[in-house]
């Protein structure tokens, strides 16, 4: 059973400036819920109730979000507005939240290594909360946790993307074991369409085995001068220990403005209006 999930939330969110100048990108709401809360709910649903946040300067709103607001509780307890607190109270009841700060933004691999102290030596999930994933059945992390019990190695969530978009992603190639499950032998970070080994792109959901930390320590900076998790995963893939999983569900790229707007419209029409 995987009980911990890491949330690297230290990035600058430059594509959302000026909104993200003094506000974390992960706190931008899709309708009325911050992006990061969707990710936390997905992790808790998968049994990963310890949420390890790798934060940075200017990200205190995230820490505060996952704590009690005494004033708010005091003001609206017993009033007709109390129901508005239900969803976050539910998360706070079930989750444990731990934090560490990444002092320099040296890439996702570096962020994950910074979170080592919150994880220790056990397998763990990773959620990049700017990828919002929804599914009618079990969430993407829950699907991956089940797969982990079968394979006991690192797992990356993948989806097919048009060839002209592969340059935005880490891309895999591998042997198809059964429907939607691949044993990965090659991973390339942000390849051009010519260099890409396939159109199977990694999205922001991972399950990692803890040997990844020692591998990242030895991984030099790669694409964009950042320590790339894809480069570290390639070492595990060389050992036959990385699976890729074509998840069931839909993913919105909320790290980009068009994806964010698409997610907002979808959640408003398909969830908010139906539930309110
Ligand atoms: P992105 O590159 O998509 O996020 O990193 P960003 O840097 O915040 O966005 P832009 O490009 O400037 O708009 C993917 C994820 O990894 C985290 C980010 O917070 C995001 O969730 N990350 C990235 C870190 O935590 N630390 C880093 O050094 C880099």
The backbone outline, from C-alpha atoms, is globular
CATH C-level label: Alpha Beta
Strand content: 25-35%
Mean pLDDT: 94
Query: Oligomeric form of this entry?
Result: single chain
Question: In angstroms, what separates the terminal alpha carbons?
Answer: 35 Å
| Computed Rg | 18 Å
**Main beta sheet: strand number and arrangement?**
5 strands, mixed, barrel
> How many distinct beta strands?
13
Q: How many H/I helices?
A: 10
User: Can you tell me the CATH topology?
Assistant: Spore Coat Polysaccharide Biosynthesis Protein SpsA, Chain A
CATH superfamily: Spore Coat Polysaccharide Biosynthesis Protein SpsA, Chain A
Q: What hetero molecules are bound to the protein chains? A: uridine 5'-triphosphate
The assigned structural class equals alpha/beta
Do you know the CATH architecture?
Alpha-Beta Complex
Whole-number count of domains? 1
Helix content, binned percent = 25-40%
Q: How do the strands line up in the largest sheet?
A: 8-11-9-10-12
Which series of helices and strands comes N to C? EEEHEHHHEHHEEHEEEEHHEEH
């Amino acid at each position: 059973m995987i009980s911990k999930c890491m949330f690297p939330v230290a990035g600058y969110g430059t594509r959302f400036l000026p909104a993200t100048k003094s506000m974390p990108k992960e706190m931008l709401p899709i309708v009325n819920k911050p992006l990061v809360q969707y990710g936390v709910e997905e992790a808790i649903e998968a049994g990963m109730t310890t949420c390890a946040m790798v934060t940075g300067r200017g990200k205190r709103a995230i820490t505060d979000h996952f704590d009690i607001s005494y004033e708010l509780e005091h003001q609206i307890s017993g009033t007709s507005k109390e129901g508005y607190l239900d969803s976050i109270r539910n998360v706070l009841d079930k989750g444990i939240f731990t934090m560490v700060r990444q002092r320099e933004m040296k890439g996702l691999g570096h962020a994950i290594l910074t979170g080592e102290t919150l994880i220790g030596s056990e397998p763990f999930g990773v959620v990049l909360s700017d990828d919002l994933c929804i599914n009618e059945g079990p969430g993407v992390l829950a699907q991956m946790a089940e797969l982990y019990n079968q394979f006991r190695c690192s797992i990356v969530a993948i989806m097919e993307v048009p060839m002209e978009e592969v340059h935005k992603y880490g891309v895999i190639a591998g042997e198809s074991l059964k429907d939607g499950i691949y044993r990965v032998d090659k991973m390339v970070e942000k390849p051009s369409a010519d260099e890409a080994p396939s159109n199977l792109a990694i999205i922001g959901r991972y399950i990692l085995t803890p040997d990844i930390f020692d591998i990242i320590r030895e991984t030099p900076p790669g694409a964009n001068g950042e320590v790339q998790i894809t480069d570290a995963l390639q070492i595990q893939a060389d050992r036959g220990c990385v699976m890729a999983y074509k998840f069931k569900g839909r993913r919105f790229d909320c790290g980009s403005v068009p994806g964010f707007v698409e997610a907002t419209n979808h959640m408003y029409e398909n969830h908010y209006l139906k539930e309110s």
